[in-house]
Amino acid sequence: MFNEWLWGGFAIVNFAMILAIYKIFGKPGLFVWIGMSTVVANIQVLKTVELFGITATLGNIIYGTAFLATDILNEKYGKKDAKKAVWLGFFTLIAMTVMMQIALQFTPAESDTVQGSLVTLFSLVPKVALGSLAAYLISQYFDVWIFSKLKSKFPDDKYLWLRNNGSTMISQLLDSAVFCTIAFSGMPLNIWLEIFISTYVIKFIVSFLDTPFFYIAKKMKTTN
Asked: Could you tell me which InterPro entries the record lists for this protein (predicted)?
């Protein structure tokens, strides 16, 4: 159970840090967080761990915080700022990908000890890279759209949980479907379904766990 307890604590740390950056820096802090989280999530996702009896990727928590950040922006500042944040995250991910591919082409010095590790981390499998970019953009845009729809139909604060959970859980389902379809195309259906289901189960749990932090952010006063 060590991984499960550590994973729970890791989730709390991630959500607490997004509240901290929002409290200190306001709206700009959320923009910075989204850019950072898209990059870190695509590094952490390379590590697989055993959680709740299934094999899962590690990047799902910090990736989920990007959805929390866009929901906070949508709730407190509007749809326009949430969309801007989505594009910022997308550009950050592309910029990191391009820069690291160029960096890998440099011939390392004889004393270098990290080239092999960098190659392992940042060498792209084309379908996985395309799947990650497409899933991020499609699911995040859908999250902004469905959050706005839910907010217009259920504007009272008593429905905060519905706006947050409904938009994130559905958009995370779309994210998993797009990523798995592109990245694992041609894979036997039973294996594809196992990856898809296990990936979404973890994302669903993360979406549920971020609810109290969304409520705190809603009430939080910032200077920006």
From this structure: YhhQ
For tokens 């729809």, the residue is 149
Q: pLDDT-derived band of residue 108, with 50, 70 and 90 as boundaries?
A: very high
3-class DSSP string for the chain: CHHHHHHHHHHHHHHHHHHHHHHHHCHHHHHHHHHHHHHHHHHHCCCEEEECCEEEECCHHHHHHHHHHHHHHHHHCCHHHHHHHHHHHHHHHHHHHHHHHHHCCCCCCCCCCCHHHHHHHHCCCHHHHHHHHHHHHHHHHHHHHHHHHHHHHCCCHHHHHHHHHHHHHHHHHHHHHHHHHHHCCCCCHHHHHHHHHHHHHHHHHHHHHCHHHHHHHHHCCCCC
- Taking the whole predicted model, whether its pTM rises above 0.70 is answered as yes
Cα–Cα distance for residue pair 19/212, rounded to 1 Å: 11
Q: What band does 12 get if pLDDT is binned at 50, 70 and 90? A: very high
**Cβ(36)–Cβ(4) below 8 Å:** no
Query: Rounded to the nearest 5 degrees, what angle is found at the Cα of 40, between the Cα atoms of 37 and 42?
Result: 105
Query: Left if phi > 0, otherwise alpha if psi is -120 to 50, otherwise beta: which for 84?
Result: alpha
Q: pLDDT, tens digit, for every residue of 48-72?
A: 888 888 888 888 899 999 999 999 9
CA distance 30 to 7: 23
Per cent of the chain over pLDDT 70 is 99
